Amino acid sequence: MAVFDSGLGSLSVVRAIRARCRCRITYLADQASYPYGLKTARELGRIVRRTVRELEERFSPDAIVAASNTPGLLLDVPGVIMVRPPLAEAARASRTGRIAFVGTRASVRSAGLARMARSLPDGCRMQRIDGTRLVDLAESGAFHRDQELCRRVISEDMRPGRGVDTVVLGSTHLALLLPLLKSALPGMSFVDPADRAAARACAAGPPEGRSSLRVYTTGDPARLRLSLAAAGLRCAVRAF
Fold first, then answer.
1. Residue ranges of domains in the chain, CATH in brackets
2. Which residues pair with 100 in a beta bridge?
3. Distances (CA, A) of 30 to 97, 221, 224
Protein backbone atom coordinates (compact mmCIF):
# COMPACT_ATOMS: atom_id res chain seq x y z
CA MET A 1 0.00 0.00 0.00
CA ALA A 2 1.25 3.51 -0.81
CA VAL A 3 0.23 6.68 1.05
CA PHE A 4 1.27 10.15 -0.10
CA ASP A 5 0.73 13.82 0.59
CA SER A 6 2.72 17.02 0.22
CA GLY A 7 4.54 16.32 3.48
CA LEU A 8 3.72 15.40 7.06
CA GLY A 9 -0.03 15.16 6.48
CA SER A 10 0.27 11.52 5.48
CA LEU A 11 1.43 10.63 8.99
CA SER A 12 -2.07 10.80 10.52
CA VAL A 13 -3.43 8.44 7.85
CA VAL A 14 -0.45 6.09 8.13
CA ARG A 15 -0.99 5.86 11.89
CA ALA A 16 -4.68 5.12 11.43
CA ILE A 17 -3.96 2.39 8.87
CA ARG A 18 -1.37 0.73 11.10
CA ALA A 19 -3.84 0.78 14.00
CA ARG A 20 -6.43 -1.04 11.87
CA CYS A 21 -4.58 -3.65 9.85
CA ARG A 22 -1.26 -5.31 9.14
CA CYS A 23 0.22 -4.20 5.84
CA ARG A 24 3.37 -3.01 4.14
CA ILE A 25 3.17 0.76 3.70
CA THR A 26 5.21 3.01 1.45
CA TYR A 27 4.82 6.57 2.74
CA LEU A 28 5.83 9.33 0.32
CA ALA A 29 6.10 12.91 1.57
CA ASP A 30 6.10 14.93 -1.66
CA GLN A 31 7.61 17.97 0.01
CA ALA A 32 8.85 19.36 -3.30
CA SER A 33 5.17 19.95 -4.16
CA TYR A 34 4.21 21.57 -0.84
CA PRO A 35 1.77 23.19 -0.36
CA TYR A 36 -1.11 21.45 -2.11
CA GLY A 37 -3.49 24.01 -0.64
CA LEU A 38 -2.24 26.92 -2.74
CA LYS A 39 -2.31 25.05 -6.06
CA THR A 40 -4.99 25.38 -8.73
CA ALA A 41 -7.03 22.28 -9.52
CA ARG A 42 -5.12 21.90 -12.80
CA GLU A 43 -1.72 22.13 -11.10
CA LEU A 44 -2.77 19.74 -8.37
CA GLY A 45 -4.17 17.30 -10.90
CA ARG A 46 -0.82 17.13 -12.70
CA ILE A 47 1.05 16.61 -9.42
CA VAL A 48 -1.26 13.90 -8.08
CA ARG A 49 -1.48 11.95 -11.35
CA ARG A 50 2.31 12.09 -11.81
CA THR A 51 2.85 10.91 -8.22
CA VAL A 52 0.38 8.04 -8.62
CA ARG A 53 2.08 6.95 -11.84
CA GLU A 54 5.54 6.99 -10.24
CA LEU A 55 4.35 5.04 -7.18
CA GLU A 56 2.76 2.41 -9.42
CA GLU A 57 5.90 2.08 -11.53
CA ARG A 58 8.30 1.83 -8.60
CA PHE A 59 6.32 -0.16 -6.01
CA SER A 60 3.22 -1.73 -7.66
CA PRO A 61 1.13 -1.14 -4.51
CA ASP A 62 -2.19 -2.93 -3.93
CA ALA A 63 -3.79 0.42 -3.06
CA ILE A 64 -2.82 4.09 -3.17
CA VAL A 65 -4.13 6.70 -0.74
CA ALA A 66 -3.93 10.41 -1.57
CA ALA A 67 -3.75 11.39 2.11
CA SER A 68 -4.90 14.99 1.77
CA ASN A 69 -8.33 16.59 1.84
CA THR A 70 -7.34 19.18 -0.78
CA PRO A 71 -7.08 16.78 -3.76
CA GLY A 72 -10.04 14.89 -2.31
CA LEU A 73 -12.18 18.02 -2.72
CA LEU A 74 -10.71 19.25 -6.00
CA LEU A 75 -10.09 16.02 -7.91
CA ASP A 76 -11.46 12.59 -8.70
CA VAL A 77 -8.66 10.15 -9.55
CA PRO A 78 -9.92 6.67 -10.55
CA GLY A 79 -8.35 3.83 -8.60
CA VAL A 80 -7.01 6.11 -5.86
CA ILE A 81 -8.46 6.34 -2.35
CA MET A 82 -9.20 10.02 -1.80
CA VAL A 83 -9.56 11.61 1.64
CA ARG A 84 -12.66 13.76 2.03
CA PRO A 85 -13.82 15.68 5.10
CA PRO A 86 -16.37 13.83 7.28
CA LEU A 87 -18.95 16.62 7.35
CA ALA A 88 -21.89 14.29 7.89
CA GLU A 89 -20.14 12.69 10.88
CA ALA A 90 -19.51 16.14 12.35
CA ALA A 91 -23.15 17.11 11.84
CA ARG A 92 -24.28 14.00 13.72
CA ALA A 93 -21.84 14.73 16.56
CA SER A 94 -22.85 18.38 16.93
CA ARG A 95 -25.31 19.21 19.69
CA THR A 96 -26.04 22.67 18.29
CA GLY A 97 -26.16 22.00 14.54
CA ARG A 98 -23.25 24.41 14.08
CA ILE A 99 -19.98 23.00 12.77
CA ALA A 100 -16.76 24.48 11.39
CA PHE A 101 -14.43 23.25 8.65
CA VAL A 102 -10.78 24.28 8.88
CA GLY A 103 -8.53 23.47 5.94
CA THR A 104 -6.28 24.81 3.21
CA ARG A 105 -7.29 27.87 1.23
CA ALA A 106 -8.01 25.76 -1.85
CA SER A 107 -10.23 23.33 0.03
CA VAL A 108 -12.13 26.07 1.88
CA ARG A 109 -12.95 27.76 -1.44
CA SER A 110 -13.56 24.56 -3.41
CA ALA A 111 -16.74 23.64 -5.24
CA GLY A 112 -16.32 20.16 -3.76
CA LEU A 113 -16.72 21.45 -0.22
CA ALA A 114 -19.73 23.55 -1.29
CA ARG A 115 -21.39 20.45 -2.76
CA MET A 116 -20.79 18.47 0.42
CA ALA A 117 -22.14 21.32 2.55
CA ARG A 118 -25.39 21.32 0.56
CA SER A 119 -25.92 17.71 1.65
CA LEU A 120 -25.82 18.53 5.37
CA PRO A 121 -29.04 17.95 7.30
CA ASP A 122 -31.62 20.73 7.40
CA GLY A 123 -30.76 23.19 10.13
CA CYS A 124 -27.04 22.37 10.17
CA ARG A 125 -24.77 25.29 9.35
CA MET A 126 -21.06 25.16 8.52
CA GLN A 127 -18.44 27.88 9.00
CA ARG A 128 -15.35 27.82 6.79
CA ILE A 129 -11.96 28.69 8.35
CA ASP A 130 -8.81 29.23 6.28
CA GLY A 131 -6.22 27.12 8.11
CA THR A 132 -3.33 27.77 5.71
CA ARG A 133 -1.08 29.14 8.46
CA LEU A 134 -1.92 26.20 10.73
CA VAL A 135 -0.94 23.72 8.02
CA ASP A 136 2.35 25.60 7.61
CA LEU A 137 3.01 25.28 11.35
CA ALA A 138 2.60 21.52 11.10
CA GLU A 139 4.74 21.08 8.00
CA SER A 140 7.52 23.38 9.25
CA GLY A 141 7.89 21.44 12.50
CA ALA A 142 6.76 24.37 14.63
CA PHE A 143 4.29 22.05 16.34
CA HIS A 144 7.22 20.75 18.39
CA ARG A 145 9.84 23.53 18.06
CA ASP A 146 7.76 26.62 18.82
CA GLN A 147 4.52 25.87 20.56
CA GLU A 148 4.14 29.49 21.69
CA LEU A 149 4.01 30.54 18.03
CA CYS A 150 1.46 27.80 17.38
CA ARG A 151 -0.74 29.01 20.22
CA ARG A 152 -0.61 32.57 18.92
CA VAL A 153 -1.56 31.61 15.36
CA ILE A 154 -4.33 29.32 16.61
CA SER A 155 -5.77 32.15 18.72
CA GLU A 156 -5.65 34.50 15.72
CA ASP A 157 -6.98 32.16 13.03
CA MET A 158 -9.24 29.71 14.86
CA ARG A 159 -12.32 31.77 15.70
CA PRO A 160 -15.31 29.44 15.56
CA GLY A 161 -18.56 31.37 15.38
CA ARG A 162 -21.25 31.47 18.02
CA GLY A 163 -22.75 28.07 18.71
CA VAL A 164 -20.08 26.04 16.88
CA ASP A 165 -19.26 22.97 18.94
CA THR A 166 -17.65 20.63 16.39
CA VAL A 167 -14.67 21.25 14.10
CA VAL A 168 -13.78 19.14 11.07
CA LEU A 169 -10.03 18.85 10.51
CA GLY A 170 -10.02 19.55 6.77
CA SER A 171 -6.29 18.93 6.42
CA THR A 172 -4.48 15.79 7.49
CA HIS A 173 -1.61 18.02 8.69
CA LEU A 174 -3.82 19.43 11.43
CA ALA A 175 -3.74 16.22 13.46
CA LEU A 176 -0.22 17.27 14.51
CA LEU A 177 -1.71 20.38 16.13
CA LEU A 178 -4.62 18.60 17.78
CA PRO A 179 -3.31 18.81 21.39
CA LEU A 180 -2.80 22.56 20.95
CA LEU A 181 -6.20 23.00 19.29
CA LYS A 182 -7.92 21.18 22.13
CA SER A 183 -6.11 23.33 24.68
CA ALA A 184 -7.07 26.55 22.87
CA LEU A 185 -10.70 25.51 22.33
CA PRO A 186 -11.78 23.57 25.43
CA GLY A 187 -15.09 21.80 25.08
CA MET A 188 -14.86 21.73 21.29
CA SER A 189 -15.09 18.36 19.50
CA PHE A 190 -12.74 17.64 16.60
CA VAL A 191 -13.47 15.19 13.78
CA ASP A 192 -10.45 13.72 11.97
CA PRO A 193 -10.83 12.17 8.48
CA ALA A 194 -7.90 9.79 8.95
CA ASP A 195 -9.85 6.87 10.43
CA ARG A 196 -12.40 6.74 7.62
CA ALA A 197 -9.59 6.82 5.02
CA ALA A 198 -7.78 4.06 6.90
CA ALA A 199 -10.87 1.86 6.90
CA ARG A 200 -11.17 2.20 3.12
CA ALA A 201 -7.46 1.53 2.65
CA CYS A 202 -7.48 -1.61 4.80
CA ALA A 203 -10.52 -2.92 2.93
CA ALA A 204 -8.83 -2.32 -0.44
CA GLY A 205 -5.65 -4.30 0.24
CA PRO A 206 -5.29 -7.99 1.15
CA PRO A 207 -4.41 -8.67 4.82
CA GLU A 208 -0.74 -9.37 5.41
CA GLY A 209 1.08 -11.30 8.09
CA ARG A 210 3.37 -8.50 9.13
CA SER A 211 3.59 -4.73 9.02
CA SER A 212 6.39 -2.62 7.61
CA LEU A 213 6.92 1.03 6.79
CA ARG A 214 9.19 2.63 4.22
CA VAL A 215 9.37 6.41 4.15
CA TYR A 216 10.47 8.51 1.16
CA THR A 217 10.55 12.22 0.47
CA THR A 218 11.08 14.48 -2.52
CA GLY A 219 12.57 17.00 -0.08
CA ASP A 220 15.29 16.79 2.56
CA PRO A 221 15.38 13.32 4.19
CA ALA A 222 17.21 14.55 7.32
CA ARG A 223 14.67 17.29 7.95
CA LEU A 224 11.72 14.95 7.52
CA ARG A 225 13.34 12.37 9.79
CA LEU A 226 13.61 14.95 12.59
CA SER A 227 9.98 16.05 12.19
CA LEU A 228 8.76 12.45 12.20
CA ALA A 229 10.81 11.73 15.32
CA ALA A 230 9.25 14.74 17.04
CA ALA A 231 5.83 13.30 16.15
CA GLY A 232 6.80 9.95 17.68
CA LEU A 233 7.87 8.01 14.58
CA ARG A 234 11.57 7.12 14.45
CA CYS A 235 12.51 5.62 11.10
CA ALA A 236 14.85 5.90 8.16
CA VAL A 237 13.88 8.35 5.42
CA ARG A 238 15.03 7.89 1.83
CA ALA A 239 15.17 10.31 -1.09
CA PHE A 240 12.54 9.58 -3.75
1. 2-83+195-239 (3.40.50.1860), 87-193 (3.40.50.1860)
2. 127, 167
3. 37, 11, 11
